[in-house]
Design a protein that fits this description.
It contains two helices and no strands. By secondary structure, the protein is mostly helical. It has one domain.
Length: about 60
Amino acid sequence: MSIEPANWTAEERAAFYARRESRNRALGILLVSLVVLFFGITVVRMTGQTPPIPASAAQPQ
């Protein structure tokens, strides 16, 4: 396959666009899954907070 798109046949152009669409979908799925992962981690960290230790209990006797 030639580097210059002007010299591509219709089949080469279709194959190029199909590969590009496949890569774009894969990157989109990766980005969405990272956003969901980060959001999930944030929610778990915020809801999993333990109450603070009272000052009297934190000091050694």
